[in-house]
Design goal:
38% of the residues lie in helices and 25% in strands. The protein starts with a strand and ends with a helix. It has two domains: 131 residues, 3-Layer(aba) Sandwich (D-Maltodextrin-Binding Protein, domain 2); 86 residues, D-Maltodextrin-Binding Protein, domain 2, CATH 3.40.190. The protein is an alpha/beta fold. A six-stranded mixed beta sheet has the order 2-1-3-10-4-11. A five-stranded mixed beta sheet has the order 7-6-8-5-9.
Length: 247
């Protein structure tokens, strides 16, 4: 039987989910797993190069058909810490914002927050590698993932995008990425996949031991910043966000 091609993000926030996958021999026999950054996974899923991806949810309205196959996601019910607008000046003084090339959901969310929550209209620039070095003065940048956790030590002002969304929506959580398939998949695969995700989240000490990251406390990150269960409240937040994208 052909293996199911699966792609996941290589950031720290996915390590618990990947731990479970790597420790599920039965699932590993069924899949071919690769790791890259979110916007590339979205491209691969839309082109059919893979069948399952942990994709930025902003891509969903562009897909002909999609199936959210897991009860687990990359979400937040408070400050997410690793998806932020960084600057050296207050919001009102920002004149230019670099938009992280590795993300689609975070860029879309940042645009919504700048317009509807923060009421600012700076020049928006599609970033290229190395742009983080240009965050200074009145030039800000949206940064995601591990690089954002590192940037927290450098920037004077940090505007957390998940926190901004929750404030704007009166408390709805935010979903950054979900496990999405571009076709219907067997029930036994989906069951194993969910069990593997759950197993990783039940073994956080082992995950943290495998991933040294002195810039930020990973226990805090995995238990307070990232919220992994795709529950009904997150689905409500996701539906609202997807509705805003269509407007």
């Amino acid at each position: 039987m052909d293996k199911i091609k699966v792609a996941a993000v290589s950031y720290l926030n996915t390590k618990p989910l990947l731990y479970g996958i790597h420790h599920s021999p039965a699932l590993l026999e069924m899949i071919e797993l690769t790791e890259t950054f979110p916007s590339e996974i979205a491209r691969q899923l839309m082109s059919g190069e893979i069948e399952v991806g942990l994709v930025p949810v902003a891509v969903l309205p562009e897909m002909k058909a999609y199936y959210i196959i897991s009860d687990y996601c990359i979400g937040a019910t408070g400050k997410v810490a690793s998806v932020c607008l960084f600057s050296d000046c207050p919001l009102a003084e920002i004149k230019k914002v670099y938009l992280d090339y590795q993300s689609r959901t975070s860029v879309a969310l940042a645009k919504i927050l700048m317009k509807s929550r923060w009421k600012i209209s700076p020049e928006l620039v599609e970033a290229t590698p190395g742009y983080i070095n240009d965050i200074s003065g009145t030039t800000a940048g949206v940064v995601i993932g591990d690089r954002a956790l590192e940037q927290r030590k450098k920037s004077r002002y940090i505007y957390d995008l998940a926190e901004g969304w929750i404030e704007m929506t009166g408390g709805l959580p935010f979903v950054f990425a979900a496990w999405v398939a571009n076709k219907k998949l067997p029930g036994d695969f989906i069951k194993l996949f969910n069990e593997a995700n759950k197993k990783g989240l039940e073994n956080l000490p082992a995950v943290i031991a495998q991933n040294s990251f002195p810039q930020y406390d990973l226990y805090t990150y995995y238990t307070q910043n990232i919220s992994y269960n795709l529950d009904e409240e997150k689905k409500k937040g996701l539906d609202m966000f997807l509705g805003m994208l269509k407007e």
